[in-house]
Specification:
globular, Serine Threonine Protein Phosphatase 5, Tetratricopeptide repeat, Rossmann fold, about 525 residues, 3 domains
């Protein structure tokens, strides 16, 4: 037969001149005139995928499999082509057929696992990834699997896998870092500290390790081993490096735990100043974004019914969103999904795609699947990403029945808590300076007022001070807002926590943080200079 490369070149040329459909018809006519060998079908299907013609690849692969049903790799390429054109059920069927013939087919495992994850079937995806793992995986496979398990919120099996791997490589700093992060997320603070110390010993420039080590407990003395380790890093690591900045945030936290606020402020100022130079947040840019959201009407709502009530807990970070979600999740019919990052992605996808109805429907189904998942039925499902306040217009369109809980906290307590954190995500770059925190808070207040006035969505304002002072009463109000009947048996709201509240949210509910800014004020006068006593 003709050389597959020549046929693919002809297909590409025809597709540019006459369209993909006509080009494929000509390609198929050539194949029928001079039947290709089994390997040629595979090369052609793969080439069509590489040329961005998945529809043609599907048709060609199906024709080839009709002639050669045992071509495993051709079936695998058919599955990937089906995924690309949105036929997910058919893709899953073909991938499972591949795995039935070859259970360790790495490509099919990865494709099916990501397909399941995209549909919100996180438990099934994590189980597939674990079942396909070799008894002694290589370092690259191990790290890929760990990363995937974390994407699936499977912190428990990920930690167990890391522990098994450390038995084979006890001095691997990256594995200790992963184990420390996972143990911290699960509230195993002593275990986390052991792994984090070992990771930092092997890799002092493991920036988040310094932050995590400082967050793993409350310090009681300067001569504690972890305190000495952090102090040394804060002295020796370059002040403009990521690790050096993180170490200074960590050292400030140690000193604050010890009540030495006068000493805690200088490293905190230095760390934020260095971070601000690197990140350069724009108050003007955020104000323009807020104005665009206000000026642009939200998309039309998607006509779908959800088998649960979607709830977004929003507001400024550090206002009690994590605590509120965990307390709500004690109810057996509530699921807390933590901080999902889907809404901002969906909004960008829909807006850049021109708000096409099909795109809205696709995004709505994907977001709902990521909330629903496969861990049992629930009446209420919570996404507690505080920064979702930016896209509530899109959320109202994508999530029928949406309800919004708006968390608020004293202005200066909030600002101080933000200033004391080294956030990983660029969305929180405003936290490096009090003037920028104030500008961000003004934008949040303005946008929330707009959403309340324009969206047909129930809102409830949750004051942090009331939540920690009269927790039972506030929880009753929250459950009434969500139409939750009293539960005969409550859970503990347990689960992995990846936010800066990883320590605080697992402690007993207390009022000690209310008005905490006053102790800092003599040492940090810029706090009161830029931040009002109350937000707008």
């Amino acid at each position: 037969m003709n050389d597959p490369a020549a046929l693919l070149a002809a297909f590409r040329s025809d597709a540019q001149r006459r369209g993909a459909g006509t080009a494929y018809a000509a390609l198929l006519q050539s194949l029928r005139a001079d039947l290709p060998q089994p390997g040629d079908w595979l090369a052609l299907a793969q080439g069509l995928l590489q040329q961005g013609a998945p529809g043609a690849a599907v048709a060609l692969a199906e024709e080839g499999l009709a002639r050669h049903p045992d071509l495993l790799e051709l079936r695998y390429h058919l599955a990937n082509a089906l995924r690309m054109i949105g036929e997910r059920q058919a893709a899953e069927r073909e991938l499972r057929a591949v795995l039935a013939m070859q259970p360790q087919h790495a490509g099919a495992v990865a494709s099916l696992a990501h397909l399941l994850r995209g549909e919100g079937r996180l438990a099934a995806a994590a189980r597939l990834a674990l079942d396909a793992l070799p008894a002694l995986p290589g370092p690259q496979v191990l790290r890929q699997t760990l990363a995937f398990l974390r994407e699936c919120d499977a912190a428990h099996p990920a930690l167990e896998l890391t522990q098994r791997a450390l038995m084979q490589a006890p001095d691997d700093g990256e594995l200790h870092a992963a184990a420390g992060e996972l143990a911290l997320e699960l509230g195993r603070f002593e275990q986390a500290r052991v792994h984090l110390r070992r990771a930092l010993s092997a890799q002092p420039r493991f920036a988040s390790g310094w932050l995590r080590l400082a967050a793993a407990h409350v310090f009681g003395a300067r001569d504690e081993p972890d305190a000495r380790l952090i102090a040394q890093a804060a002295r020796e690591l370059p002040g403009d490096s990521e690790a050096g900045i993180a170490a200074r945030f960590a050292w400030s936290k140690v000193l604050a735990d010890l009540g030495a606020l006068d000493e805690a402020v200088p490293p905190l100022r230095a760390a934020n100043a260095a971070l601000a130079l690197q990140r350069q947040w724009s108050a003007q840019g955020f104000a323009a974004y807020v104005q665009r959201q206000i000026d642009q009407p939200p998309p039309p709502p998607v006509a779908q019914r959800l088998p649960f009530t979607p709830v977004l807990i929003v507001g400024l970070p550090r206002t009690g969103t994590t605590l509120a979600a965990r307390l709500l999740a004690r109810h057996p019919l509530v699921r807390n999904r933590g901080e999902l990052n889907w809404l901002a992605q969906m909004a960008l996808h829909v807006e850049t795609g021109g708000r096409r109805p099909a795109l809205l429907a696709e995004s709505a189904a994907l977001y709902a699947a990521q909330m629903r998942r496969d861990d049992g039925p629930a009446q209420v499902i919570v996404d507690k990403n505080p920064l979702n306040f930016r896209q509530l217009g899109m959320a109202a369109a994508l999530l029928p029945g949406l309800r919004v809980i708006h968390c608020r906290r004293g202005a200066r307590d909030t600002a101080l808590s933000l200033y004391r954190q080294m956030f990983a995500h660029a969305d929180n770059d405003y936290a490096c300076a009090f003037a920028d925190i104030a500008a961000f808070a003004r934008g949040e207040a303005r946008l929330m007022a707009h959403w309340r006035a324009t969206l047909p969505v129930p809102f409830l304002t949750l004051e942090y001070e009331r939540l920690v002072s009269d927790t039972d009463t506030v929880l009753e109000e929250l459950r009434a807002f969500l139409d939750l009947a009293p539960a005969a048996q409550a859970g503990d709201g347990d689960g992995a926590i990846r936010t800066a509240s990883v320590w605080q949210a697992r402690q007993r509910v207390h009022r000690e943080a209310i008005g905490g800014w006053r102790a800092w004020a003599p040492h940090l006068p810029e706090l009161a200079e830029h931040i009002p006593e109350h937000w707008p």
